[in-house]
Design goal:
Strand 17 and strand 18 form a beta hairpin. Helices cover 0% and strands 43% of the residues. By secondary structure, it is mainly β. The chain is globular and about 45 Å long. It contains no helices and 26 strands. Strands 1, 3, 5, 7, 9, 11, 13, 15, 20, 24 and 26 form an 11-stranded parallel beta sheet that branches. Strands 2-6-10-14-23-25 form a 6-stranded parallel beta sheet, with no helix packed on it. Strands 4-8-12-16-19 form a 5-stranded mixed beta sheet, with no helix packed on it. The termini are far apart.
Length: 191
């Protein structure tokens, strides 16, 4: 599925499954993609990033619910890849709220024909790109994340003290909901 620049794609339910593409195996976003429910699963990005969803620099993905699971990418972001446009330096926008789930996605996985999901490989859920001094981030949307939300995250060129999410209310600690896919780093609440 392709959301062109200046277009809006809304997903309220159903599934996007069993697809492959060179970037954004399930959904490629240059415009706006709003996901309120449903699932994106069993998709693969060949040669590039974003097995489930690829968000181009300047694109916008608003995830208010639903799940992105069991996808694979040959590069980073088996579930979602939030890109930076190398020409303009514009970061993609990723806004998340509700009980959104981005989990059990991999890099270089193998398709399990009995489940239709990719497994094995290296854990790679949401990858936040970095280009020069610009880094893609997560914005926590209105109403915040629910207690059943789960988001695994990896940052390109990881370093101590990197901000991965903004918009959280000061009294809500999301470090148990947003977790690091890189075992050398952890997600902590900046109080």
């Amino acid at each position: 599925v392709f959301a062109y620049a200046k277009s809006t794609l809304n997903m309220y339910g159903g599934s996007i499954t069993g697809n492959s593409s060179a970037g954004g195996g399930g959904v490629s976003v240059k415009g706006t993609f709003r996901m309120y429910g449903g699932s994106i699963t069993g998709n693969r990005s060949t040669d590039k990033s974003g097995g489930g969803v690829f968000i181009s620099g300047g694109g916008k993905f608003v995830m208010c619910g639903g799940s992105i699971t069991g996808n694979s990418a040959d590069a980073e972001g088996g579930g979602v890849y939030a890109n930076i446009d190398p020409d303009t330096g514009n970061a993609s926008e990723f806004i998340v709220s509700g009980n959104a789930i981005i989990a059990d996605n991999v890099k270089n996985g193998e398709l399990d024909s009995s489940t239709g999901k990719y497994t094995g490989g290296t854990t790679s859920n949401l990858c936040l790109a970095k280009h020069n001094n610009t880094r893609a981030t997560i914005t926590i949307g209105e109403g915040g994340l629910g207690n059943n939300a789960s988001i695994g995250v990896y940052v390109e060129e990881p370093a101590d003290g990197v901000t991965i999410a903004t918009g959280a209310t000061a009294d809500k600690n999301y470090s148990g909901i947003i977790v690091s896919d890189n075992s050398d780093y952890e997600v902590a609440h900046d109080s």
